[in-house]
């Protein structure tokens, strides 16, 4: 196979795996917070539970170079799948916060490892041209999956009969080998959704089985390279933190935000789909623009549009179609910003340095997401539902302050 053929085949496998895993994550983004709220957990704690999933980014990114020195990228992809599956299955049995924290953290470890490895892989592919557009294809696959997840949650009644026998068998195994029975507060909808998410999360590894010979190998990067990447590209790394706060914050709380503003569960769940559909439709056009203009100005324009969207959300939420339209545009803005950041990282760092660069990119995204979700949960607890847009407005203003007064945009 030619070099271009290998690059295309590898990219296709990465896109397929990313898409399927993103569907699972999209289901979790709806089920995790709504299930916890039904168990009587307050929003501040829900924010902490949702954020704990991304704490593992610090562990994964800091150790990624050593891990790839011990075993191949392909091997670690399979390990990450083995970590995610039991965590999702066990969540359908418990309702107490300590167990949820532990299991969501375990799932997060597997999910973050999987995503970081795929991101490192696609950034290592030697695309000959239009790197921004190529990276956007990968981001679009994730956006499509995240948009489809909430849609599937709204259609669970159509798969309940198909998955019920599997759920019964799972209950029997858990009772026999773990002496574990599902808590009475766990609804059938929650259990079916978590089972479907676990199945999809496992299927995400199947496309990669055909790509073992295509997976790259990396040498162990030098110590200290992680901080080097932050110093070399501060504006891009902090822009990734902003995308983490916005994208992960909306994933974790937009359904609750809609429900607390009078929307039905099915309507509120589709707000996340609108956000992700915007990323699907607009991410590639934004990436194309960034391939033809100075990326730093495109980045600043996108942050400004995100600020406008955050300001408009409290007014738009009372009109369902207006809210969907605003979230559609917002999704395209943040999806485009994310793709531009990945493209800049891929351009500025080569070879083994990309391992550290992608590790720091994942760390910054996780820092933004972790701090953002905790802050949103606490703000919604203190200021009612509008704590969500308040936090995201502040994040945009904070980035402007940083980018315009302290560091050059690179």
Structure notes:
- The protein is globular, with a radius of gyration of 20 Å.
- It is mainly α.
- The protein has 15 helices and no strands.
- Helix 10 packs antiparallel against helix 13 and helix 10 runs antiparallel to helix 15.
- The model has no long low-confidence stretch (mean pLDDT 82).
- Helix content is 82%, strand content 0%.
- It starts with a helix and ends in a 5-residue tail after the last helix.
- The longest helix is centred in the N-terminal third of the chain and has 36 residues.
- It has one domain: Up-down Bundle (Growth Hormone, Chain: A), CATH 1.20.1250.20.
What coarse outline follows from CA principal-axis ratios?
Answer: globular
Secondary-structure element order, N to C: HHHHHHHHHHHHHHH
Tell me about the largest β-sheet: none
Can you count the beta strands?
Answer: 0
Between the first and last Cα atoms, what is the distance in angstroms? Answer: 37 Å
Query: Could you please say which CATH topology applies here?
Result: Growth Hormone, Chain: A
Helix-residue proportion = over 70%
How many H/I helices?
A: 15
Low-confidence stretches: none
**What CATH architecture label applies?**
Up-down Bundle
Residue share in β-strands:
under 5%
Quick one: CATH superfamily? Answer: MFS general substrate transporter like domains
**Rounded mean pLDDT score:** 82
Radius of gyration: 20 Å
The assigned structural class equals mainly alpha
Q: What number of domains?
A: 1
What is the C-level CATH assignment? Mainly Alpha
């Amino acid at each position: 196979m030619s070099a271009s053929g290998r690059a295309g085949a590898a990219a296709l496998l990465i896109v397929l795996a990313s898409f399927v895993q993103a569907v699972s994550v999209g289901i979790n983004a709806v089920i995790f917070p709504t299930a916890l709220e039904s168990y009587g957990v307050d929003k501040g704690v829900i924010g902490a539970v949702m954020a704990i999933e991304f704490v593992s980014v610090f562990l994964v990114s800091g150790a990624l170079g050593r891990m790839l020195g011990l075993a191949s990228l392909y091997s670690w992809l399979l390990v990450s799948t083995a970590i995610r599956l039991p965590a999702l299955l066990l969540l359908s049995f418990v309702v107490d916060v300590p167990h949820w924290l532990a299991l969501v953290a375990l799932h997060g470890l597997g999910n973050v490892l999987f995503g970081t490895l795929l991101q490192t892989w696609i950034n290592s592919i030697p695309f000959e041209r239009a790197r921004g557009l190529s990276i956007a294809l990968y981001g679009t696959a994730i956006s499509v999956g995240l948009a489809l997840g909430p849609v599937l949650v709204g259609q669970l009644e159509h798969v309940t009969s198909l998955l019920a026998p599997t759920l019964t068998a799972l209950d029997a195994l858990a009772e026999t080998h773990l002496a574990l029975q599902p808590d009475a507060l766990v609804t059938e909808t929650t259990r079916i959704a978590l089972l479907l998410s676990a199945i999809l999360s496992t299927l995400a590894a199947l496309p990669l089985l055909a790509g073992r010979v295509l997976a790259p190998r990396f040498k162990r990067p030098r110590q200290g390279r992680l901080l080097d990447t932050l110093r070399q590209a501060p504006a891009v790394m902090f822009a990734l933190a902003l995308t983490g706060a916005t994208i992960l914050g909306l994933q974790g709380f937009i359904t609750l935000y809609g429900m607390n503003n009078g929307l039905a569960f099915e309507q509120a769940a589709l707000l996340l789909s609108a956000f992700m559909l915007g990323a699907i439709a607009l991410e590639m056009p934004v990436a194309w623009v960034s391939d033809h203009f100075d990326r730093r100005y495109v980045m600043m324009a996108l942050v400004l549009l995100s600020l406008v969207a955050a300001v408009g959300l409290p007014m738009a939420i009372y009109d369902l179609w207006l809210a969907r339209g605003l979230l559609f545009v917002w999704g395209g803005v943040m999806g485009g910003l994310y793709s531009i950041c990945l493209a800049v990282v891929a351009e500025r760092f080569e070879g083994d340095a990309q391992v550290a660069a992608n590790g720091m990119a994942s760390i910054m995204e996780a820092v933004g997401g972790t701090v953002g979700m905790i802050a949103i949960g606490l703000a919604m607890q203190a200021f009612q539902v509008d704590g969500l847009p308040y936090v995201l407005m502040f994040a945009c203003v904070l980035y402007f302050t940083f980018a315009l007064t302290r560091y050059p945009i690179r």
